[in-house]
Amino acid sequence: MSIGTHVNINTAPRSISIFGSTGSIGCNTLDVIDHLGGRDAFSIAAISGRGNIDLLAKQARDCEAALAVTADDSRYRDLKDALSGSGIEAAAGPSALVEAAERDVDCVMAGIVGMAGLAPTLAAARRGADIALANKECLVSAGSLFHREMDTGGGRLLPVDSEHNAIQQVFDSNQRDSVERIILTASGGPFRGLSLDEMRQVTPARAAAHPNWDMGLKISIDSASMFNKALEMIEAMHLFALRPEQIEVIIHPQSIIHSMVGYSDGSVLAQLGTPDMRTAIGYALTYPRRPHLPVERLNFAELARLDFEAPDETRFPPLRLARLAMEGGGQLGAILNGAKEVVLEAFIEERIGFLEMAEIVETVMDRMGPGETPTDIQSIYDADRDARRHAGEQIAARAR
Amino acid sequence: MSIGTHVNINTAPRSISIFGSTGSIGCNTLDVIDHLGGRDAFSIAAISGRGNIDLLAKQARDCEAALAVTADDSRYRDLKDALSGSGIEAAAGPSALVEAAERDVDCVMAGIVGMAGLAPTLAAARRGADIALANKECLVSAGSLFHREMDTGGGRLLPVDSEHNAIQQVFDSNQRDSVERIILTASGGPFRGLSLDEMRQVTPARAAAHPNWDMGLKISIDSASMFNKALEMIEAMHLFALRPEQIEVIIHPQSIIHSMVGYSDGSVLAQLGTPDMRTAIGYALTYPRRPHLPVERLNFAELARLDFEAPDETRFPPLRLARLAMEGGGQLGAILNGAKEVVLEAFIEERIGFLEMAEIVETVMDRMGPGETPTDIQSIYDADRDARRHAGEQIAARAR
Q1: In B, which residues are within 8 Å of A289 by CB distance?
Q2: In the beta sheet, which residues pair with residue B183?
Q3: What is chain A's alpha carbon radius of gyration, rounded to the nearest angstrom?
Q4: Which of A248, B26, B249, B351 makes a 20 to 30 Å CA pair with B87?
């Protein structure tokens, strides 16, 4: 095995906790850790999951985790049983998650999806771990609060989302003044070529077929509507401390350029790769070293071409909503995100149409207004809950 | 004017000498210096040109250079007269160029084309200046010797060629082990789509029409034959201390991606831009800061697409010759370059055909063999002279 394959030549294993280990980020993280030398390179302090107890217990045994946590209080017994005889500690429930996040580790993979990831990730940030961030809410809903906790802890923030990881790879933080803009690429999803009228008629099944990445139903629909890209815009603003007008989106159907940074000398730097999330995960786990990974290499002659087109904010209104949220500040990120979750469910249940999702979110943002910039997690929970309630009312009103 | 526009906030002007100031690199360098604050940012120790005395004298007066040198001994009087009353020192001839290069400056722009650039650039390197390198022969013909002089002087080597500058911008020299390959982009020139038979019939006039960059006749033909790219491959090997097999070439007709670096985690990092050499010049002049330049910014929606195809080494044999030169080492770089100069002249004079250029260069490389790695400039001059003589003989033999 060549030098560079292992991350810890002559050093102790890096300690890590993986939150959301049974999800796709978590499974890929464990795979990357295996490739980087497994137990020789990383010691696993804690892993967490929710309903898939069998997989969680198997992962915990395989990677010799010290602790396994299910977010679901009612599954404590099941997890305890599944781990019996292994010597691995079992715990359950939201407060057990936060407690696990407060354990002293070098690095935390924050892979829990949704608002449930907020409290443990904020706790890990405050504790001082490097955060490999795959949870959107920490930045979209809690951007300034999350930064405050990172500053308190002193760890490094390393984005795992392919777009933000790409930007991180080519963002010169020693020369912030020379960064003019970042350019987030978007595949455009399955409806890139549809007319506005056609988009009104779209069904959940059609929205779920994403052309480049193999994803779940909700994330596929968020990708098709570009709500996903809207959240990424807000995340990017917080991650890289940019002004809203510095954040551009370009449709790039092949998803080979993962994102770009434009500089004051006319240079644009880009990170490219095959759609394999292990590159970004490896980068975050071993930063500032770059690991060796068995990821398929790009072959430009086979690619043959890369295409670009301007996004249409009429057909993809979430991009416009993201600008409103970035410019308005306050709780608008949390409101957009909370309302989006509810309209997404309603679309999946075919209670509202595809374009109604953005209409309702905009109405909720309008009605609630930005409010104060959140300084504690409770105020974010409140904004999220209010946004969900308002969105529910709007959906009900349309159903009448 | 915003912070970042000037390079020397609170510092003394950076002293610089510009060799080849009347050529296209030199003129663009003076333009960049104007944009970066002119005399407030840079003090010009010396500039040099050859036959265009009027322009050289005008530049010297405009930029308040301390010294102006013409490489042509016989033009000393003309230059002296043109500078009369200015207080600017005049000098002429190759040894005056070397003497100018030995003056103590922070940075030297090495913009002299051809073998004539070798001695002054080696002298400046030994003296310890940062070298903004636009001369190919320093690396192609004198790679290891040039590196030795750079090491002696301790200056930084900053490539100005758009491809190598692109690689420099995304090459992580702290993690050399993680660099798997570099990918030089090539426009493919005007004959990208021609058959082998059609290429045999190509005329100098057709070869001179380069699609993306506005260039002179010789460089246009070198671009059309890909001898230019062959030299860049050898340069890249020396610049970035790579193995021959780590250097790839991809045809990219739009010339927007200037080149790329492939890493061990699957990431490919790229620098993109409009075809404006001021970006690379500004980067080299102000490194490690990035300047603000009035270069046209990329608009990806307008670009619409970027294409790639594998280069065909049968139709573009110089790429194969570059590999032979890289693998063979010794004097093969100098031999390839010297023979190439002669066959290029012969093609322009329509004494040989387009594809005969590479055939003759290969014959010369075969006949002469690699020889010893050069340790002094005289041995490089010798190899260059012998290669030119051999090439001349081959051309004459074909004419019979």
Answers
A1: 175, 178
A2: B248, B260
A3: 21
A4: B26
Q: Are B306 and B254 in contact (CB under 8 A)?
A: yes
What structural domains and CATH numbers belong to chain B?
Answer: 14-159 (3.40.50.720), 162-274+296-312 (no CATH), 329-400 (1.10.1740.10)
- Respond yes or no on whether the N-terminal peptide bond of residue B288 is cis (omega within 30° of 0): yes
d(Cα A120, Cα A47) in Å, to the nearest integer? 12
DSSP conformational letter for B176:
G
Distance CA B87, CA A37 (A): 68
CA A209, A215, A221, A223 torsion-angle sign: negative
Closest Cα in chain B to A184: B300
A154-197 confidence digits (pLDDT tens): 999 999 999 999 999 999 999 999 999 999 999 998 899 999 99
- Does residue A288 have a cis peptide bond before it, meaning omega lies within 30 degrees of 0? yes
Whether pTM exceeds 0.90: yes
In DSSP terms, B47 is beta-bridged to: B18, B68
Please indicate whether, in this complex, the C-beta atoms of A269 and B269 are within 8 angstroms of each other. yes
Asked if residues B393 and B385 have their Cβ atoms less than 8 Å apart, the reply is no
B333 membership: H or E segment, kind and range: helix B332-348
Compute the Cα dihedral for A37, A40, A41, A44 and give only its sign: positive
| Coil, strand or helix at B47 | strand
- The secondary structure of residue A324, as a DSSP letter, is H
**Cα distance between residue A182 and residue A264, in whole Å:** 12
Hey, what are A350's tokens?
Answer: 């075919």
* pLDDT per position as a tens digit, A98-109: 999 999 999 999
- Answer for the pair A268, B260: CB distance below 8 angstroms, yes or no: no
Structure tokens that stand for B148 in this block:
């030795």
For residue B310, list chain A residues with Cβ-Cβ distance below 8 A. Answer: 301
Burial B81-113 (b: 16+ CB within 10 A, else e): ebbeeeebebbbbeebbbbbbebebbbbbbbbb
Contact predicate B26/B47, CB 8 Å: yes
Helix-helix angle A332-348:A318-328, to 10 degrees: 160
How far is residue B292's CA from residue B9's CA, in Å, rounded to a whole number? 13
The Cβ of residue B213 has, within 10 Å, a number of other Cβ atoms equal to 15
Q: Do B301 and A310 touch (CB under 8 A)?
A: yes
Query: What is the length of chain B?
Result: 400
> For residues B394 and B363, is the Cβ–Cβ distance under 8 A?
yes
Distance separating alpha carbons of residues A400 and A259, to the nearest angstrom: 43
Percent of chain A at pLDDT above 90? 91
Helix, strand, or coil (residue B317)? coil
Which of B316, B185, B317 is closest to B247 using CA atoms? B185
CA distance B158 to B285: 8
Interface probe for A, chosen from B259, B299, B300, B313 (most Cβ of A below 10 Å), is: B300
3-state secondary structure of B68: strand
Q: What is the ipTM of this complex?
A: 0.95
User: CB distance B267–A297 less than 8 Å?
Assistant: no
pLDDT single digits (tens) A189-215 = 889 999 999 999 999 888 777 656 556
Closest CA to A185 of A308, A268, A318: A308
